[in-house]
Structures are given as structure tokens and as C-alpha cells.
Design goal:
48% of the residues lie in helices and 16% in strands. The protein is built from 13 helices and twelve strands. It has a five-stranded antiparallel beta sheet with strand order 2-1-5-4-3. Strands 7-9-10-12-11 form a five-stranded mixed beta sheet. It has a two-stranded antiparallel sheet with strand order 6-8. The chain is elongated, with a radius of gyration of 46 Å. The relative contact order is 0.06.
């Protein structure tokens, strides 16, 4: 075919969705030397080639559009990253960076491309940070997860910025190592965030300790009247004995004055009878013993109050749970509920229930549960309370039981019970059903936290037909001298008795 008879060049391929242009026009008359059948074959082949060319160009355009979209997606990811990113070749020369790194070092992409990465470090390639970077690159070759290096970059103002880099090898299409990728975050931001988190945590701990101490002080304040009565008896006893000692001292001084003054035997005998010296000497022993007993009782009461009111330092020690309950009953009765009818049933096997924890915190939990029961029963009409008492039902029944590894305390009162809508909020801070000024709403919330920190559980339920049931479960402490793996529910050895958690304060009232 001559140049003049050649077909027109192919038009540009259509975009996706466009209609395909018609094929170029061919001469209607077959060239000389070709019959009509052969010419039709040529025309058909040319149509097929043209159609294939159009399809290939359409596919190429589609792939170019997808590639452009992928490149734009990768660029948007790199631009959105807050961490710095650097891609280097095998010699450590920069090939690609993201906006976060360029902003940090104050250089453009063109100024960074092709330069060694260690030029950006404090001290340059020969400094300590350059050595760390090269060591991380060497370690990343043999590691599947890469390596980590903490280095200092120079920012736009020339100041050192610590950056924690993660270095991973970069593999090309043939599976060969083509370089390294460094991703890191300036540690200054992490340190600020950590510092703020630590300050918030410390503030939360201080607030929690203040709430706990405030609730303990509120409970202690309700006991002031009972404590005054508790202290008045031994102090009055000591004061009376001191007055008697003063009189005895005056008598003995008079007698000793006569004795040292050289008085005769008759005068001394008369003075001895008149001053009742024999009776005084006989009474001095019991008088001093009684004074010491009263002083010791006063010291025990003050010691118990100090243990309850002092800020707890989280010391853990063996605690006799039954003794804690008895002490809580004692304080509540001496404080706000002197006539509150309580029946406490400890385990009858004689082994006791010893847990490991803070005596002051556990006493606070027991006092709170008993005080809440007293307040609930006091809110009932007097007729209901009298009717229950006539049936022999206690206002509060406390039962202490033990299993192989757990102690369980149940507080069952005959108050109005707990409304279903209140059960889910009962342990929320500041939630209370008491009148304004009668409760802070912190007692049960703090008690729940104390029991949980002791490895136990505090649960509440409505007791049919009337009343509330609170259950405290605490893990038993392993008895001293029990080998590992032995049954902790076995008898406690007599050679290792459990020390009492609280001083025994006798009730001085009749």
C-alpha cells in the first residue's frame, strides 16, 4: 500500500464512559491485485486491531487514574501523620519525608532529598546520635520487627529534640533490601502527656484520700457523745483515786514528821491510830492498781480512736473479723444508737475468721453498714418497730460464716428495704436516700472501694418481705505456719495465735 493510500492515524482513545469513535474510512474499491474477498479480510483485521488498541488504551487510562488515586491517598496519609517519617536508601540518604519531619527541621523536600539522614542529628554523623542511628540500621537488617533508636534531631531553631525512632528495612519489588524507613515521635510531646497524666493521677489519689478521711471524720463525729461517756468513767475513777492518794499522802507526812521529830512510842501509837496508818498502807496497793487500770482503759480508748481517725497508710496485717464487728457494734451503740437491737452470730467452731487487711478501714466499713441499718430502722413508724420486737425479731442480725478460703458477713435489717430503682445506684458516690443534712452519699461508695481493695466484694439486695441484706465477702488470710498448698481451713496452730486487731475496751456502763 502506498503512503497516499495509508489509512488515517488512529484517533485518541476515548475516556471511560465515552462513546468509541468510528474506525477510519477505507477505500471502497479494493486495490489493484487483490480480489474482493481478500480485501474484506484486510478490512476486518484492521477493525479488530483498532478495537484492541482502543481497549488497551482505555485500560491504560483506568490504571493511570487508579495509580494517581493511590498516590494521592498515600500523600494524604503522610501529610496527616503527626509522627515524623523518613525513607532512606541503603546508604542512609534521604529519599522521602513527610510534612511532620519537614516542619520539625524547618527544611523543604528538595533540600532534604539526597542528603544523609545523620546530617539532621545533633553532633552530625560523627556524634553519639549518629552512631546510635547506624547501629539501629545494622540491627534492623537481622530483625523481622526492626529496631529502636532514641536520637536528638536539630529543629528549625537549632535546638535538640529527642525522637524515638523505629527503624525497619525497606524491600524492593525483587525482594532485595532497598533501604530503611524511620518512624518516630518527638519525646517532648510524650513526656508532657505523661507528666499531665501523672499529675491527674496524683490529684485523683489525693482527692480519694481526702474523701476517705472526711467520711471517717464524719463517722467519728457521730460518736462524740458516746466517746465522752466512754472516757468519763475511767477518768472519774482515776480522779477519785488521786484525791484519796492526796489524803493518804497528807496522813503519812504527818506521821513521818512525828517519827522523825523524836516523839515517844505512846504519841506515835496514838497518831498511828488517829491517822489510820495501817488502813492507809493496806489500801495503797489496791488504790494504785485501780488507778493504773483506769489510766490503761483511758489509753486504750484513745489508742482505738487514733487508729480509726488517723489517715490510713495501707498497712496490711492479720485482722480478726469478729473482733472488728464487735468493736463496730460497740462504737455505734455508744454513739448515735444506744438502744439499737443487734444480734451478732460469729462462727461456732472456735477458729475465728482472720483476714489480711487494714483494721481501721475494715472497722469503717462495718460501722457504716451498722449505722445505715440503724438509720433505716429508725425511719419506720414506732408501731412497726414495736411489733417486730414483740415477735422477737432483732433490728439487725449480723452473721459471720467461713468457707475454705473466704469469710462472709451478712447484715440483715428489718428496715424499709431498698427500692428496685435504687439498687443500681446504691454504691455511686454522693447518692443517698437520707434527708438533706443526714448523709453525704459517700459511705457506701467508700466502703465498696475498701472491700474491693481488700480483694473482696460488697453486695446489696432487698430482703423479702421487708428489709435490706448487705453481704461482705473477704478472702481469708493464710494462717502462720501453714505450708504452701495446705488447706487454710484447717485448725490454726496454737503456737501462732492471731494477734488482736484492736484493744479490748470493756464496757463500763451497767
Amino acid at each position: 500500500m502506498s503512503r497516499a493510500e495509508a489509512p488515517d492515524p488512529l484517533p485518541h482513545a476515548p475516556r471511560p464512559g465515552e462513546a468509541m469513535p468510528p474506525p477510519p474510512a477505507l477505500p471502497a474499491v479494493p486495490p489493484e491485485g487483490l480480489d474482493e474477498g481478500a480485501w474484506l479480510d484486510v478490512i476486518q483485521r484492521m477493525d479488530e486491531v483498532y478495537s484492541q488498541l482502543v481497549r488497551d488504551e482505555i485500560a491504560l487510562e483506568e490504571k493511570n487514574a487508579a495509580l494517581e488515586q493511590s498516590q494521592q491517598f498515600i500523600f494524604s496519609l503522610l501529610s496527616a501523620m503527626s509522627d515524623v517519617l523518613v525513607a532512606c536508601d541503603a546508604q542512609g540518604r534521604i529519599e522521602e519525608t513527610n510534612a511532620a519531619l519537614r516542619t520539625l527541621v524547618g527544611r523543604g523536600e528538595a533540600a532534604l532529598r539526597g542528603h544523609p539522614l545523620d546530617d539532621l542529628l545533633v553532633g552530625g554523623p560523627d556524634g553519639a546520635h549518629g552512631a546510635r542511628l547506624r547501629r539501629a540500621m545494622a540491627e534492623a537488617v537481622d530483625s523481622a520487627v526492626g529496631s529502636v533508636a532514641e536520637v536528638d534531631l536539630r529543629d528549625a531553631q537549632g535546638q535538640a529534640v529527642p525522637v524515638d525512632f523505629n527503624c525497619t528495612p525497606r524491600i524492593d519489588a525483587q525482594g532485595r533490601r532497598a533501604g530503611h524507613v524511620f518512624v518516630g515521635r518527638p519525646l517532648g510531646e510524650l513526656k508532657r502527656a505523661y507528666h499531665q497524666l501523672r499529675e491527674a493521677h496524683e490529684a485523683l489519689k489525693r482527692t480519694q484520700a481526702q474523701l476517705l478521711h472526711s467520711e471517717k471524720m464524719a463517722s467519728l463525729g457521730r460518736l462524740v457523745a458516746g466517746v465522752a461517756h466512754e472516757l468519763n468513767n475511767p477518768i472519774s475513777f482515776v480522779l477519785g483515786n488521786v484525791h484519796a492518794l492526796k489524803r493518804y499522802t497528807e496522813r503519812l507526812s504527818q506521821y513521818l514528821g512525828l517519827l522523825h521529830g523524836g516523839s515517844d512510842g505512846t504519841t506515835l501509837a496514838q497518831a498511828r491510830q488517829r491517822l489510820r496508818i495501817d488502813h492507809t498502807l493496806a489500801d495503797l496497793g489496791s488504790l494504785m492498781a485501780g488507778t493504773l487500770e483506769g489510766a490503761q482503759r483511758t489509753a486504750d480508748i484513745v489508742h482505738g480512736l487514733k487508729r480509726f481517725s488517723a489517715v490510713d497508710r495501707e498497712e496490711r496485717q492479720p485482722v480478726d473479723l469478729a473482733a472488728v464487728v464487735e468493736r463496730a457494734i460497740h462504737w455505734v451503740r455508744k454513739g448515735t444508737a444506744p438502744s439499737f437491737d443487734i444480734v451478732f452470730t460469729p462462727p461456732d467452731d472456735g477458729r475465728g475468721c482472720t483476714v489480711s487487711g487494714s483494721p481501721g478501714q475494715l472497722l469503717q466499713v462495718m460501722m457504716n453498714l451498722i449505722q445505715n441499718a440503724a438509720d433505716a430502722v429508725a425511719s419506720l413508724p414506732a408501731a412497726d418497730t414495736q411489733a417486730a420486737a414483740a415477735r422477737g425479731e432483732p433490728a439487725l442480725r449480723i452473721t459471720l460464716t467461713r468457707s475454705a478460703d473466704q469469710a462472709r458477713l451478712q447484715f440483715l435489717d428489718r428496715g424499709p428495704g431498698i427500692a428496685p430503682e435504687h439498687l443500681s445506684r446504691l454504691f455511686d458516690p454522693f447518692f443517698t436516700t437520707k434527708p438533706v443534712g443526714k448523709g453525704t452519699g459517700l459511705g457506701l461508695s467508700i466502703s465498696y472501694g475498701i472491700v474491693e481493695r481488700h480483694g473482696g466484694r460488697l453486695q446489696a439486695a432487698h430482703a423479702a418481705p421487708q428489709g435490706a441484706l448487705f453481704t461482705v465477702e473477704l478472702p481469708l488470710a493464710a494462717p502462720t505456719g501453714v505450708p504452701a498448698g495446705a488447706d487454710p481451713s484447717g485448725p490454726i496452730p496454737a503456737a501462732s495465735p492471731t494477734p488482736p486487731a484492736f484493744p479490748t475496751i470493756p464496757d463500763p456502763s451497767p
